[in-house]
Amino acid sequence: MGDRTAIEWTQATWNPTTGCDRVSRGCDNCYAMTLARRLKAMGQPRYQRDGDPRTSGPGFGVTCHPDALRLPYKWRRPRLVFVNSMSDLFHAQVPRSFVAQVFEVMAATPQHTYQVLTKRARRLRRLAPGLRWPENVWMGVSVEDAEVLHRVDDLRIVPAAVRFLSCEPLLGPLDGLSLKGIDWVIAGGESGRGARPMQAAWVQQLRDQCATEKVPFFFKQWGGRTPKAGGRQLDDRTWDEMPVFATEN
Ligand code: SF4
Tens digits of per-residue pLDDT, 47-64? Predict the structure, then answer.
């Protein structure tokens, strides 16, 4: 958990939970799982619980950190906060009451804008009616290939002020994607050892669909051995569009 991050589109991270399990192809090279193993070896107290070796790893067992709930109150200057870079808030092992507490904190700190991203879209959909949805909470789902387009349908009915898609790592064309009810799309390739290459046609198709449907599009990076290895240019320019809501702030 830290208050600075290298993720391009956010300014802070907040991890009220840590740990997770792989659920789809997008998880195969999960950077958080690798980092958790390292943090456990370094003795970091938040990463001492091991996950299921078939789907998780050392130090990556799902753990709630009630003490972390206080952190956003301590940040006096407004921040764009990425929630749970080291976990998935809607994991089945995170109690519903704890998810609700996280949303209460976000509602009580309207000076910050929160970006919550999940691959557990079905649980998000189930829990959404019982959560508070203040305007400063942006809710997103990961969409790495067409196999998981059902996550977009689940997100569409969530009453968030901004609903976004994180198409990263983009692992295939998103044929059949509907952007109805979606306010922002982020795309990017995978980075790190064993990174799976992203084809230009996949991301161009997505960008063109966003342009046609007037949905802001943000291109993070091509990926490769390091996040910056392939640069950020797509067809000779960068794409840094943000939701209309964000540019008004
Ligand atoms: S859902 Fe996210 S945090 Fe969990 S294993 Fe997959 S990539 Fe990692």
Answer: 999 999 999 999 999 999
Which of 15, 54, 88, 166, when mutated, tests ligand 1's pocket best, judged by the most ligand atoms within 8 Å of its CB? 88
User: pLDDT per residue over 219-236, tens digit each?
Assistant: 999 998 887 888 999 999
CATH number at residue 216: 3.80.30
Structural domain contains residue 81: yes
User: Is 23 a domain residue?
Assistant: no
Compute, in angstroms, the gap from residue 127 CA to the centroid of ligand 1. 19
List Cβ neighbours of 40 (8 Å cut-off, separation of 6 or more).
47, 48, 50, 58, 59
Pocket test of ligand 1: the residue of 22, 34, 117, 168 to mutate, having most ligand atoms within 8 Å of its CB, is 22
Q: Return d(Cα 21, Cα 50) in angstroms, integer.
A: 11
The pTM of the full predicted model, rounded to 2 decimals, is 0.93
Number of structural domains (the chain) is: 1
Domain hosting 155: range is 2-13+69-238
- Which residue CA neighbors atom 7 of ligand 1 most closely? 27
The closest of 243, 222, 242 to 234, measured between CA atoms, is 222
- For residue 21, which atom of ligand 1 is closest to its CA? 5
